[in-house]
Amino acid sequence: MRKRLLVRLLSVSALIAVCSVAATAWLAVTTTTSALREEQGQDLAADMKILARLSGYAATHPSWKGVDGTVRALAATTGRRIALTTPDRVPIADSAPRGTALPLGAAATVDPLHTDTYTEPGAQLSGVDPRAVGPYRLTAGERKEMELLAEKVRQCYERQGVEATLRRAPSGRPVLSGSDGFPRSVDLSEQCGYYMLLTSTPTEKKAIDALAEGTSTCLQRRGLNFGRPEFVAPDPAKPYRYVVAGFDKLGKTKAVREAQPCADSALRAQLAPYVAPVAELFLGIGDRPAPRFDMSSENKAKIVGVAGLVMAVTVAVTAVVAVRLVRPLRALTAAAQQPPELHVRVPVTTRDETGILAEAFNDLTERRERLEAQRKAMVSDIAHELRSPLTNIRGWLEVTRDGVVDPDPALLASLHEEAVVLQRIIDDLQDLAAADAGTLRLHREPVRADELLAQVAAAHRVAADAAGVALSTEPWTDGKPWLDADPVRMRQALGNLVSNALRHTPAGGTVTLAARRDGDGGDQIVFTVADTGTGIAPDDLPHVFDRFWRAEKSRSRRTGGSGLGLAIVRHLIAAHGGTAEAASEPGAGAVFTLRLPGSPPPVDG
């Protein structure tokens, strides 16, 4: 099956379809995944932006009053629905129309005093939003004084070749920073007055004292009497990451571990009046249109590349298959266009339908060559068969006309015999022509097989006796065998077989005619004509029914016949719906078998 042309075409089509579907699916998955990731990344970035903005608002405002403008601006920018409620789901602000149901769950909790350190960079260790400064915000005069001092320190660093920049912390304190960190060195920092920037302002001292007092109260409640803690900002880059600096009775590490919870609690209590209360943040789709995946240039190039690759593979596979299919067809076309006398054959290179067609073409060419050879031989044989008697007739008539011989009865009998031979040849050729054209007429009637054999044997009895050959028929013992056949044509066919057997059987031999039933249910009548003659060589046996064929080429038309008798037998039997066969062994005689369909006896028989 794998060599079938249809199977191969279907396999190639299936392969191309699978490759196309796989490439399309791969492109769809990769581009869609990329677009979804991009969309998710954009949504996540937008959500983080919303949370950061609202957390910053809460850190710098004591209440949520006035947050509606910020909520609507964020909703318009991000395309999300933004809603703020109290922990009890009391609405605070909502970008959606009033009465719109909230999403199923809150996206985040907005609490500047408990901020996720990963969500809000710069948050203190206590989880407080660095923008929540409360009482630590510097006054205008303190900011101006600290900024002048910071500028002098920066200029001093730059004169020493150290690049430094100034930024302002949420409390208003200037912070000096650089690419390689500060302080650069102790001597340089003291020279430029860097450590003066770490001095707390009066506002900060007041707030720190209050924080220390709150922390002490907490420690006393917990039974930890470490003394009054001191709060400082150890890192100027993060000036409000307050930690406990020192105690009298415990080591620093343990003191910090024990006192830090109280310090965090005191800091939140200190900042609580300055920040907005805790709120729940709800995020929805909003009024933005459904996500539209606009392919990037990279994805477009990928699609074009893969489509081009699939197309190239498809064209290549199709071209290969087409060439393999067309090559034998072109060979067949070229062979068919050659002159008929060349009898060109084509090579068989495949076992599919094209190969089968090539084999059929070669068989047809071989049959045509064989028929052409037979036609030429037949024309030559006919000319030879007609030339000999005509030459004899002409020669005797000329010498008679010239008075060389007298037209006596013997001469006239010889001329008549030659004319009979010509007539027999012409009749045989006419029968063959009618059989080839399908115009051979049969006058069918019920005929008994045993009577048919008796008639043929009686007609050839004299010839058999003259040749010294015993001609016999085997008796029929199985009822009365009937045929629906033309009795004249059947006697002609059997007579040709008997004449051929007598011709090839030497004196003292025998020719036996027999008939029997055969086939399932005895529905066939089989005639056999067996002789004890010289037999037929195996190489000649397939040609015994060919026209003008003779087993012995040296035989003349008088002793070997015209070579048309057996060919006529085959056509006559085929016209009756039967078959003619020959079997022989050299030196053991030959057996010719005729198989014909039997028929029921007639109603009046």
Model description:
The chain is an alpha+beta fold and 605 residues long. The protein contains 14 helices and 15 strands. The protein has helices spanning 5-60, 67-78, 140-159, 186-192, 202-221, 252-271, 297-336, 353-401, 409-437, 449-459, 461-467, 487-504, 557-560, 565-575; strands spanning 81-85, 91-94, 108-110, 165-168, 174-177, 231-232, 243-244, 279-284, 445-448, 470-473, 482-485, 510-518, 524-531, 579-584, 590-597. The strands form five sheets. The chain has a five-stranded mixed sheet with strand order 10-12-13-15-14. The protein has a four-stranded antiparallel sheet with strand order 2-1-8-3, with helices on one face. The two termini are 57 Å apart.
Provide a quick synopsis of the model.
This protein has 605 residues and is of the alpha+beta class. The protein has helices at 5-60, 67-78, 140-159, 186-192, 202-221, 252-271, 297-336, 353-401, 409-437, 449-459, 461-467, 487-504, 557-560, 565-575; strands spanning 81-85, 91-94, 108-110, 165-168, 174-177, 231-232, 243-244, 279-284, 445-448, 470-473, 482-485, 510-518, 524-531, 579-584, 590-597.
| DSSP E strands, number | 15
In round numbers, the mean pLDDT is 79
Question: What structural category characterises the helix and strand content?
Answer: alpha+beta
What separation lies between the terminal Cα atoms?
57 Å
The biggest beta sheet is recorded as: 5 strands, mixed
- For the largest sheet, list the strands in their spatial order: 10-12-13-15-14
Broad shape: rod-shaped
| Rg, alpha carbons | 61 Å
Give the number of helices. 14
